[in-house]
Amino acid sequence: MTLTWERHASDGQARAGTLHTAHGDVPTPTFMAVGTAATVKAMTADAVRSTGAGIVLGNTYHLMLRPGADRVAALGGLHTMMDWSGPILTDSGGFQIMSLSSLRTMDEEGVTFRSHLDGSPHRLTPESSIGIQHKLDATITMCFDECTPFPATHEQAKSSMELSMRWAARSRQAFVERQGYGLFGIVQGGVYEDLRAASVRALTDIGFPGYAIGGLAVGEGQEMMFRVLDHTTPMLPTDRPRYLMGVGTPDDLLGSVARGVDMFDCVMPTRAGRTARAYTSRGVFNMRNARFADDPGPLDPDCGCPACSRHARAYLHHLFRCEEMLGPMLLTWHNLTYYQSLMRGARAAIGQGALTRYIDQVRAGWGAAKIASEPN
Ligand SMILES: [Zn+2]
After folding, report:
1. Tens digits of residue pLDDT in 98-115
2. CA distances from 112 to 59, 98, 147, 329, 376 (A)
3. Can you give the pTM of this predicted structure?
């Protein structure tokens, strides 16, 4: 009835599998390109498909404000509107309310907030968030939750997590089952092991076809994030997909795959692409840097995307210097292709029981310690 996930191989905590949905199958581990406003910025749907992407993400908060869920539904849902026939995951709006809107007031029932666009008042509850995601025709719906801020005291993280668990039960009640669709629960609890454990127990008692790990990549740093994953993923059911929300750099992704995560989303490759930052098999480059002005070589010799196979680094540099829109388009295309290639490599390596060797090789290509943080 609901969507399912099938495991093909394991390597330590890492798993390779297939997500079976109403809108097709997706091999995991997978990276979901972020299509906030029903578009992956600077990319046509065909271009997104050509990167190897199997599933994309949309944002409930943005789409409920513009163009509005009823309007999306009248246009046939997100799949039709975006020309994306594959699976789509929508977030619940909770994270964006916290990060974008002003004058939030939270109560047991839900959140009242003002739009970051025009200040108009809105309210989201677990029931209305699930209803909006239904209208958007999300293949994967996310429970409405509160993303616990970082830092938070144990007491703050506990009451926030417990509220999210009550909202998870209400989200489950509100969700309308459809063949090949599913609702994911979201583990909260901040950086506290006992709270993460309590959250996992509460969610597995309710029962979901997939589990997300929320409240990470909010400023705690990679070491702390990995510590939370080391503790949390082994508690999750082994036969359900695990989605780490809002993560991350290429190094974050590989480290999290090794810790048993199957799905990721992040604005990083698309946002970086618009600001001249390229993630490559040789590390991170800022294409505005003058050292590329006369460089005839490909951006990444190991990549087959249009930016790398048809153009020189010097041309990409020129496009950004002139602020031509093709620069962000090509670099977004490349970054998404690179992220997909990392996931493809990880899937193959897990199948061969060689994930550690694969990660070591990839990191050696970046020039060892300097990962995706310092562009050069
Ligand atoms: Zn490329």
Report:
1. 888 777 899 999 999 999
2. 18, 11, 15, 36, 43
3. 0.96
